[in-house]
Fold:
Amino acid sequence: MSGPPDAHIRLTLRHRRVLRRLAWAPNELGLARAYVAGEIDVEGDFVDALSGLHRLLAGGALRSDLDWAARREIARTAVRLGAIGLPPKPPAEEIKLTGRIHSRARDARAISHHYDVGNDFYALVLGPSMTYSCALWGEDVETLEEAQTAKVDLVARKLGLTEGMRVLDVGCGWGTFVIHAAREYGARAIGITLSRAQAEFARKRVVEEGLSDRVEIRVQDYREVADGPFDAIASIGMAEHVGAAMLPTYAGALFRLLRPEGRLLNHAISRHPLVPPRPDNTSFISRYVFPDGELEPVSVMSGAIEDAGFEVRDVESLREHYGRTLRAWVGNLDANWAKAVRLSGPGRARVWRLYMAASALAFESGSIGVNQILAVKPGEFGSSGMPSTRTALLS
Structure:
């Protein structure tokens, strides 16, 4: 199959079951199921192949103006090829959670589904930094590891970290930010995660860095933290799991945990307000990648933070940076494909390849973005303790 002049795509259909999948789910979910099951292969650069396929279909490769004779022939061909029949069973990697949405137990299951794939698998994809959020690609940055270090340092500077400050990292992942905050700024850091695999890895890193006296890693829900106040709170790539209905609870909990004039840095993916939320029954992301994950426009996130009592002081978009970060992750996965399959299984490796490639295109097209919202808990008479200029804030 060939598309626009700048894109050459080759799709190989390895089983007629693909046609039945698409007949029962004629959307991204049906196509994704076929790819995860190994029934479709895509040749060439995977991100560029998806981009070319999207342009091909958007340009009219699938026609809706066929006459009845053509439609009858398609129906006969579908029967001959086995496209008519009961819906095939979804791949084992698909998940549908039960129980009350965004309860603590269900949130823990959702996080485990995504993050407990295996630390060795994530190391292949993320590289040495083990940082699973948007990197910061400056002019003098050449490697993914340098870009991730630049990102966590940007967070630390926006929070105004100094020696002895007590900082909480909500959704700490594999510990990159808390280690940076303690090692480079002398902060005393607590990182919380719902993933036991992440916590185990992060604790080992803390010991190896000789920071056990400054960094603590907990398996804990943000709603369970009760040992505030903190001087600063970072939430990097975690708020996407909270859910719109729980945003007031989330922002309120962080507000209560901060001291007056304490800063919050909320780094989260956003949905463009003109892009509607994806329904669970047709969303590849919700069935395979981020069950119960919800993306909200940056205005909704900042509104929830303000409604909790914070003063929003700075908002920065890093959208283009995330497209580049995801392309780097896909490159790492492809370069280590055989090992990734051994570690996670072929289906799970295909899930991650498809989701990261599609996400790169979504960031590049502007349908989703990523933003850092810096807010402060007002002190007495509304004092903020903040620098008066953005230049001073980042110095």
